[in-house]
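Q: Formylglycine-generating enzyme family protein, please. Structure only.
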Amino acid sequence: MEQNREIPTSIGHFCRLAADEFLRKRPRRRPGESQNTCLLRAEYDSEIQRIMEEIGFEVVSLRAVDPLANAIPASATQAPIVRALGGDDQFYDAYPAVADYVGFLRRGHGILAVDGSARLSFRESLFRDYFAGCAMAHRSSQTIVESCRSVVWHAPLKYWASAQSTFEGYRLVTAVTAELVSAAEDDAACALTYQILAGELMAALRVAMPDVPVTGLSRGLHRTVSAALTAASTDRAIPLDKRAKSATLYAQLNPVTWEESSRALVAESMCMSGGTFPVGSVSPLDSEDEKYRLIDWHPQRNEEIPSFRIAKFPVTNREYAEFILSGGYRDLDCWPEGPARLWAMQDPAFIDGPEGPRIGSTASQRLHLRKEMREGIVDENALQDYVDQLLLREVPLYWWDPRYNQPTQPVVGVNWWEALAYCRWLTKRLRENGSLDDRGFVDIPSEFEWERACLRSPVSQPYPWGEAWEDDMAHVRTEVNWIQQSVPVGIFPWATWEGGPQDMVGNVWEWTKSLAWSYSDARPGREDISDQGDRTVRGGSWFSREMNARKIQFRSYDPPQNAYVDLGFRVAYYTM
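A: Structure for Formylglycine-generating enzyme family protein:
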């Protein structure tokens, strides 16, 4: 693949390149192998591809019945080989090539493996699924539709779609997608399953062939699939994992430019009227974790809060990407003078200094990993490698991780300084396009403003929607059906007060501008951005073990350099 200078853009594309290398080019380069009877066949290149497809089809068909199945006897490869060669499996002995191919396949060539019982399996499941998907795509429409009721066939077809590079491949993917859309109209019980798979195929094709315009039949399919996905993402009757998948696919199929999305940021933000609002709880926090008791949500206090606007959702990866692409990490004007700017400059005197973030981050990681370090699983070098990753970077910590980098997931792995810089950058950009006037600016809300945004009226309540907890109101840690990553924003539209911001509880913690002082501390400077002290975070997350974190009064805190898989931020809009 490196010799061809072709960089894979997807799993399917990688498998196609690997098959070319391991099954065609490499065997011909090996001494003695080039005389193999199979390799001398004029149609070898196409035959070996079809044979691998049929073997993959055989194994995945077994998995549809037994999810643990992953191998077949080497002797059982005769039937799929005959199918691939276009013959009748009752007369495989009429094809001398069959025996040659069986022997050829048993040598593996980097894709297949044979154990001591002469059972043949794929070394990697992605190869198995890629070849199986290629085979399935050429089955009858009825076979495809019936098979795809089982999710075991979804990855194979998705990998197949992502490997396409020709207009014929584009046509085939579009045809299969159309069959699934038609099946969804006729089979209500499996409609969502078909719609999600149709979305996956279209999204995979978009990655495989980004320059091909959406025209004709594909435009109609695009509209139909997009409408189904966006409806499913906010349907309270649909399980969370399906809503999350639908929302992610919709975003992948409907990319928008930053200019298009930015104009809606202020327009869709929520106006929070000013007044006196309660913050905190009337009762002390009952928690086993000393960290949370250190900044107890007690005593409750009344706080005079001026009017402001707050974003409907946390900042998403799609929005944050423009900050990265426009050079925000290197534009020092975006970074407030002091610790934030010194961190952005990667100033070693600051980072490694006696009061710098390395000391605090190292101590924090030693505490978190004390069990692993005691058992020798993590050593000091590994710990410092992680601290380097945390501190020495120009993108969010998990920016390249597909579990956390989908377009409408909240951006995570950002520290407090990054959130401040994004707000300054966004102020400038929104003023330039006229969404803000010269007196308007963007900032992180204080923790008092954040809590006020959860309340319709100046009356304390534990949740944005009212007094009682309901399991389908937020993405939080649960005993069953727990999704161990963040989900796209906006898939809990019912979990707020009418006209209020969404996703205030669960999914990701949100940085606030406030220092982690107790409520009884009346000193000025609670929002002093030059202070290196810990900052409060609010809202709980998908990873939170603390049950009280689901309540809007709950407070946690982190040093400004910290960045986690479940920590993001939301912006607010103000007028000077």
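A: Brief note, in case it's useful. The chain has a mean pLDDT of 91.
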